[in-house]
Amino acid sequence: MSNLDELYRDMLLEFYMDTSHKGELKESEHREGKNISCGDEVTLYMKHDGDRIIKASFTGDGCVVSQASASVMAHLLEGKTLEEARRLILNFISFMKGDTEDISEELKIFEGVKQFPSRVKCATLAWHTALELIEDIMKKKGN
Amino acid sequence: MFSPENIRDDFPIIKTGELVYLDNAATTQKPSCVINSICEYYEKYNANVHRSNYSLAEKATENYERARKKIANFLGVEEDRIIFTRGATEAINLVAYSIFLGGLLQPGDKMAVTIAEHHSNFVPWQQLCKKFEVEMRIVDTTDEGYIPIESFTEVMDEGIKLLAFTGMSNSLGVVMPYHEVCKAAREREILTVLDGAQLVPHHRVKVDEIGCDFLAFSGHKILGPMGIGVLCGRRDILEKLPPFMYGGEMIDKVTIEETTFNVLPYKFEAGTPNVEGAIGLAKAIEYVENIEWNDAVKHVMSLTKRLLEGLASIEFVEIYGPGDDRQHSIVSFNVKGLHPHDVAQYLSSRKIAVRSGHHCAQPQLRRLGIKASCRASLYIYNTKDDVDRLLRALEEIVTVFPWVMRNE
Ligand SMILES: Cc1ncc(COP(=O)(O)O)c(C=O)c1O
Q1: What is the pTM of this model?
Q2: How is domain A3-141 classified at the CATH fold level?
C-alpha cells in the first residue's frame, strides 16, 4: 500500500461518507473545537442521562481525516458511560501520539495518519473536544 | 534569452527534479550562490559589525554595509533609508509602532487597511488602533479580490491619515493599482505603507517612482535567506520617528539620565544584526539582477495563464480571483467536495508541493465566503511541465476520492 492509501483507507472513507452522526442535536450539550493551524472547526453534541451517553453528533467543516474521525467517535461514544467514554478518548489520543499500540479494531484505521505528523491534529480534534465536554459534564455532576 | 531550464541547476532543491515546488509565495528556493555566500561569511570573515577595528570586524562591517547598498540600489533609494529587519512582519511592526509612539496617529484619528491583507499587515494595525483609540477603516475588495482605485480613494476621502496596503495579495495573487493608490494618497497627504512581500519578488519596485512612504518586504520570498527583510522609508519621516527597539548599536550617547540615538538607519537597528542574512539577501538580489528580468516576468505570467486555463477546464475545480492578467503567479482554488488539506496531501503523494489553508489571510477568505483553499504559486524556475503535472494530478484525484465527481 502506498502511504496515501494507508492514510485514506477504505474504512476511513466510509466513515467520512457516513453522515448518520452529522448534524445538530436538539436539547443536548455541545462544545466547539478548533484547529488553529488550519482553521478546521468541529462542534460536538451530546445527550446523556447523567451517567450514559445516549446520543452524540457533530457539525463542522474539515478534511476527510477530521470528519471521519468525528464520525467514528460519535458512533463509538453512544451507549458508553461517561467514564468509559473518557477512557476510550484518552486511549485514542495516546494511540495517535504513539504512546500505545493497544487500540480497538475500528480505530486502527487511523494508524496510517501517524506518518503525517501535521495530520494527527486533524484526527484528534473531535476527540479533544469531546474530552473537554465530558469532563465538564462530569464536573457539573460531581457538584 | 531567459529560460527556466537554464537556471534550474542553480537551485539544489529544484535541480534534483524530485519535487514540483509550487509554494513560492510561502518561500522561494535558494540558489547555490546565496547558500555559499552565507558559508563564506562564517568561514572567512565572521565578526560582530560596527564594534571593533581589527581587520576581520572591518571586513564583516564592510560586507554588511555593501549588502545594504546593493539593496538600496535595487529599490532606487539611498542606503540610509534601508533598515534591516527579520522580515516583512517585523518591518511592518516597526513602522506601525514608531508611527503610533511618535504620535503621527492620535486618538480620534483614522487610518485604513484593506481586507486583502496578510495578517502581518492587518493585526498590528488593528491592535495598535485599539490601544491608541484610532479608528481603523477597511478598504473592501470586489468579489474577485481586486480593489479598483475608486474604492481606495473613497476611503481616503473619509479623512484617513494613513493607508497600509499590499501591492499583491498573497492569498489570490491579485496585483493592486499601487502606483495610482500611492499617487492619490500623496495628493491627499495620506501616509502609505506598502506591503511588498509578494510584490518585490515579481515586480521591479522603485520606491520613489511608486511614491509610497514605506515599503516592507522579506528576503526569503526573493531567493534570499530567512530571517532577513527590509523596511525602506522616506527620510524626513524616518528622521522624525522614534525608535521602536532600544539597545546596542542604535544609540549615540548614553548617560544615567538620558540617551541620544544614532543616525539613520542605525537608529532602527538595535542589537547585533543578521549579518549573514543581509549578505545572503544581497547575493539573491545580485542573482535576480543578472537575469533578463522582463523575460522572467513574462515567463511567470504565461505559466500563470496556463495554470488558470488548465484549472478552469477541470469541471470539479473552483478558482478564486479575477482570472485575468491582474493575477500574477498565484492561483487559489478548491476541488469541489474536498477539503484543501486532503487535496494538498494527495498532491504531496504525487510529489507536488502546494499550500493549503487560510494563507494568513482570514479576512480575505471570509470575504470570498470560503474557509480555506489550495494555493499554487509560481516562480522563475518553474516550468510548463510543473504546471502540467499539477493539472494532470488534479484530473486524476477522482481515483482516490471518487465522490468528487458525484458532488458536481
Ligand atoms: C503579502 C504578505 N505580507 C507579509 C508577509 C509576511 O512575511 P514574513 O512572514 O516573511 O514576515 C507575507 C508572507 O507570507 C505576505 O505574503
Answers
A1: 0.93
A2: Sufe protein. Chain: A (3.90.1010)
